[in-house]
Amino acid sequence: MPLVLVTGGAGFVGANLIRLLSQRGFDLRVLDDLSDGRRSYLEGVAGPVDARWASLTDAEEVDDACRGVDAVVHLAARSGIPPSIADPAEDFRVNVNGTFSLLDATRRAGVGHIVFASSGAVLAGAEPPLSEDLAPRPRSPYGSSKLYGEAVLSAFEASYGLVGVSLRFANVYGPFCAHKQSVVARFLERLLDGEPLVIEGDGAQTRDFIFVEDVAEAIVAALGQPQGGVYHLGTGKETSVMELAREASNAARVDLQIENRPGRRGDPARNVVDISRARHDLGWGPKVELADGVARTFDWLASERARLSASG
User: Fold this and answer.
1) What CATH code would you report for 183-205+238-271+291-310?
2) pLDDT at 266 over 90
3) What is the CB neighbour count within 10 angstroms for residue 23?
4) 201 neighbors 153 (Cβ within 8 angstroms)
5) Which of 38, 60, 77, 143 is deepest in the core (most CB within 10 A)?
6) The predicted structure's pLDDT at residue 156
7) Intervals of CATH 3.40.50.720 along the chain
8) Cα(265)–Cα(44) distance, integer angstroms
């Protein structure tokens, strides 16, 4: 089977993807500096994983990790819009310089296939539904860094003959999210603590929430693509933050309690993506409904807390 390198493989999406790739029989290598990821997230994977605990910015380690690899899934990044605004230089160092170093290493190693985790943040200023035909309008250093990743991958594909697929993730949620600050993780953590859910603004703002296992399936489909491209991943359904709060409370089997706080400046009122191109080209579509996905995420967080408590 092909050897796949997953950068950020001990992180949120990576931990779910590694399990799916292992089930499908792929040989696996992981590169992760554990700044967000956790070693424990790779425990219980069905097959062997060659784990390299090093940074994306360590050129020597990246070169070594790429040797003998057939395909790369590039998930490693300094994620989130607020951290990129607070420290744009660090965002550039990891997301721009690190991505270029990785692609240059794949070029020298003769890697033939790369899947890049991009984001809807490249279209942050656009009117939804977001689609691949819209002109990029990033409004943060993070969004700009993801747009750079798409552009440099396209350039390497044209120049060196590799296949490069960029996947723009919507709001991803699911198991292995204990370190995340996404709205789903924050809601469920507060419910486990017996605290009310904090909603910034009136809760009418909408997002497109996609379960992480559906994202992993899309990545596997992208690994089989004979040509490159850019694809939005989501459900194509708008869900308000208030609706999400109700689903989270249902999953925890408690009454809904809300604490309203002022909305964040620049927070978009609506967000939903058009996934028709991914359906057509990748033969992919989301399968997990929000209620089921939120319940599964709550159960995983509860079990993770119990595991950590038992281990001291």
Assistant:
1) 3.90.25.10
2) no
3) 12
4) no
5) 77
6) 98
7) 3-173+209-234+276-287
8) 42
CB 97 within 8 Å of CB 152: no
CA-CA distances (angstroms) from residue 253 to 179, 243, 256, 295?
A: 23, 15, 9, 10
pLDDT-based confidence at residue 81 (cuts at 50, 70, 90): confident
Catalytically active residues are 142
pLDDT category of residue 288 using cuts at 50, 70 and 90: very high
Tell me the fold of 3-173+209-234+276-287.
Rossmann fold (3.40.50)
Q: What is the mean pLDDT of residues 85-109?
A: 96
pTM for the predicted model, two decimal places = 0.97
Nearest partner of 139 among 288, 270, 266, judged by Cα: 266
